[in-house]
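Input for the complex:
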Amino acid sequence: MEIATALRNIARSTVAKAGVLLVFGMFLDIAQAEPNVDRTLSPYFLVKPQTMSAGAGQDKTAVRAADPMPLKSTQVSAVVAGVIANVTVTQTYANNGQLPLEAIYIFPGSTRAAVHGLTLQVGERRIVAEIKKRTEARKTYEAAKAAGKTSSLLEQQRPNVFQMNVANILPGDEVRVELHYTELLVPDDGVYSFVYPGVVGPRYSNQPASTDDPTERWVANPYLHEGETDPMRFAMDVILAPGVAIQAASCHTHVTKLVYETPRTAHLSLDPQETNAGNRDFVFNYRLAGAAIQSGIILSEGPAENFFLLQLQPPAHPAAAEIPPRDYIFVIDISGSMHGFPLDIARQLMRDLLGSLRAVDSFNLLLFSGSNRTLAPSSIPATPANIASAIDLLAHYEGSGSTELLPALKEALALPQGENTARTISVITDGYVTVETEAFDLVRQNLNHASLFAFGIGSSVNNYLIEGLARAGQGEPFMVSEAAQGPAVAKRFREMIATPVLTRVGVEFNGFETYDVEPVTFPDLLAQRPVVVFGKWRGPKAGQVTLRGLTGGKSYSQTLALDQATILPANDTLAHLWARARIAELADYVNLQRVDEARVAQITDLGLKYSLLTKYTSFVAVDEVVRRTTPELGTVKQPLPLPAGVPEDAVGGQDISTAPEPGSTALLLTAALLGPLAYLRRRRASANV
Amino acid sequence: MTRLTALVGLVVAGWPVLRWYALRLRDGSDEPLGLIALAVACFFLRGSDWRAKLPRRRAFGLIGGILAYVVVYPWMPASARALVFVILVGVAVAPKISAFAWTMLLALSLPLVSTLQFYFGYPLRLPTTQLAAMLLRCGGIAASADGTTLLWAGERVIVDAPCSGIQMAWTGAFFAAAIACWQRFPLQETLRLFRWTGVIVFVVNVVRAATLFLMGSGIWHLPAYAHEGIGLLLFAAAIVMIASLAFRFQKPCSV
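Predicted:
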C-alpha cells in the first residue's frame, strides 16, 4: 500500500507526467531511427499506383491521379559512317494524368559514347541545352522546376548510366528530349558491333540510404516484375554506310528488318512484332568486304585544333607457343540476379573454360554472393576429377543473396600462389553492383603479376564494370549472352592467353607532328582488334606512322603514310571522340574515396570545352515560358523493365512492407507505466463509490 | 522437509537445467527479459517462511514430480526439462494462494520466446492475417489474405515472424502473472485472467496488423515512427483492458 501511495503521488505530479511522455517519445524516436539504419539504397518493384513523392499541400487523390509512366517512347536513330556511329536518342514524355510531373528516367549508354548534345522540344519551341558544371546545372534545373518552367537535366551517374530529369510536364503535354552521341566502332576479329544498351539492370547496393551519397540515389529505382511488358515503345533505326562493301550484317538480339539499299549501304529497323524490345541490349554485327577500313588514319581540321584517329590492324594470331603452366582463379557471381538463365550460362561457360585447361595447369573456384566459398584452400591441379568436383560444386548453387564483389576480389587476389606459375584471374558476373571504381582500384593495386579477364553474363550486362575490370587487370572483357557462346568464348580466352597477338606495342610518328596522344602507353594486344590512337596534330599533313611490337617472339612493324589519310569534313566528331578517350583515361583513376582534385578539374574542363557529358558536367535545357502556376508537382521515377532473363531475385524484397511488433523494451515499459496507473484509477473510482 | 531444504535440493539436482539457462541467456538468441520475470517472482517471495515445513500435499507432489522428471529426463528436450524444473520449484516454494501465477512468472523467466516464435509464430500469424483482412473489408477496403500476406490493389504487406504477436503475448502474460501475484489471485481467477489476456492480445494484434497495413500500403501517409507508435498505443490499450479486468474479478482472497 505504501508503494501504491507513493506511485499515486508521483503520477499526480505534472513533472512526472511530462517525464512519462518524454520516455514514450524517446521510444518513438528509437523506433523512427531503426528502419533507416537497415534500409539500403536498393532497387525495388513498382507498387501501383506509383511510387512518387507528394509535394507540399498535395492530397492523396491528387497523387494518385498522376501518370505513373510518363516516358512513352524511345526512338534511336543511328548512322554508321565509316567506323563512327552518330546516334540520336529521342525520348518522348507525355502526361496522361491530372497532376504536373517531374519525370526521372535512368537509362544506359555505351561505355564508349561521347554524349555531346541535348535538345528539349516543348510544343513548337526547341531549346538547345547548355553544358555546365554538374552542380551549376542542377541548380539551374531546380530553379526552373520551382519557377514552373519546363526543363530537362541530363546527368552521368556512371560512364554507361545516365539520368534524365524532365520537370513540369503538364497534364496533356508531350515533351521530347533528344540526346546526341558519337561512338567509335572497333572491330574484333574483323566483326564490327553497334551495341545500344537497352536497360540498366537492378544494382545491388549495401550502402545505407540514411548516409548515402546523393549521386548514388539513382540505384533506388522501381522495376517492373519479371515477364511484365514495358509499356514504353522502343524503336531502332540504323543506317549502315561504311564506305566499302558490306560482307554480312545481322542482329541476333531482336527481330529486325534489314534492307540492303546498295552493296555499300544497309538500313536496319525493328520488326513491329518486337513489343518488349527495350529490356535487353540491341547488338548489330557486321563484317566488311576486305580489310581496307580496318587500318587507316582519319584527320580533321578545326579553327583552333586538328585531330586524328589512327587504327592499325595487328597481325593474325601467331602459332601456339610452348607456354609455362598457369594458375587460374575463377571468381563466379552466384547472387540473386544470377539465378536461372544467367547462372546456367555461367555453368556452361565454366564447363568450357575448365575443359580447356591442361593437366599441368592448376585452378581454384571462388563463388560469391553475400559471402565467399572456395573450392579448395589453394589451387588444385586441373585433373578430370578436380574439374568434375568444381562443376559439381557450381551445380549446387541456384543463385541467391546479395553481390559483395569487393570481398570476393580481395580473397581471390590474396589466394596463395606458387612461385613459378603465372596467374590468371577470371571474374564471371552480370556486374549489377555499384562499386565499380573501388573494384578497379582494388585490382590495380593488388594484381601483382597476375592478369584479370572479366566475363559479362546475361542480356544486359554492366559493361562499365566488365570492361573496366579487364582494363585494370591488363586482360580482356568478354560478353556472353547465351550458353551456346561458351565454347567459342573459351577458345578465344585460351587463344589470348596462349598466343598474345602483339606484345611490347609501340606507335611512332615520323614527320607528322602530334601531341596530346591517347593512349600514352599500350598494353599487350591479346585480341585480334586494331590498335586505336587518338590525338591532335599540327603542321603539314605529311610523314608516316609505324606500329611496332613482337608477335610470336618475332618483331613486327606496319607503316601507314599520311598521304593515305581520310580527311573528314569540318565537324567536331574527332574532337568529341578524343576528349571522350582522354576523360575515360582520367576517370579510371578518380576513386570515390580519394578524389583527385586535379584530375576532376581536368575532366570538368574537357567536358565544358568539348561540350561533353561527364561525371562532373551535365546538360541543362530550360524553356523560359512559365507553364505551371499551381503549387502541385509530382515526381515520378520511370519504372524499368527487368533485363530479359534476369529473375525477380535480382531486386529482392527489401521494400515489401511488414507489420512488426514494437520492441520488447518498449512493451515492458508501457506495461510498467500503465499497470500502476490503471490500478490507481480503479482505486480512486472505488473510493468515490 | 522445509521449503528451503526442498529448494536447495532442487537447485543441486537441477544443475544441468541451470547450466542450460545460463548458456541460453548468453547465446544471444533470446533477449534476457526473462531475468525481469525472475526478479519479479523473487520479489513476491518476500517474507516467505523458508523454515516452514513443506505441506504434505506439496511434498508428495514434489516427490512424484521428481520421480517423473528422472524417468523422462533422457527423452526430454532441454527447454521441456527446464519447464518441468520450474514447475517443481513452484511446487516447492510458490506462495500459497497465488502459486499458479507465481509459477507462471517463473516459467516466463525461461528463455523461450524464440522457441515459441518458431513453433507458434506461423499458427498465430495465419489467423491474424485472415482476421486482419476481414477487418479491413469491414472498413470498406477490399483486402484479401494469401497465407500470411495481406493484398490490396497490387500492394503487399507481409505479416512475418516479427509480427506474430508472441512478444506482445509474452509481455501481456508477464503483466497478468504479476498482477495475479500482487492481488493474490487463486487458481481459478488466475486462469480466467490468462484466458482473457490471450484473447485481448490476439485481438489487439489483429487490429495492429490491419492498421499497419493501411500505412504499409500507402492508404495512410504517416511518418515512419507512427509504425512503432501505433503498436505501442494498441498495446497500451491491451494493458489497460487487462488491468481493468483483473480489478473487476472476484475480490482477491485474504491470507
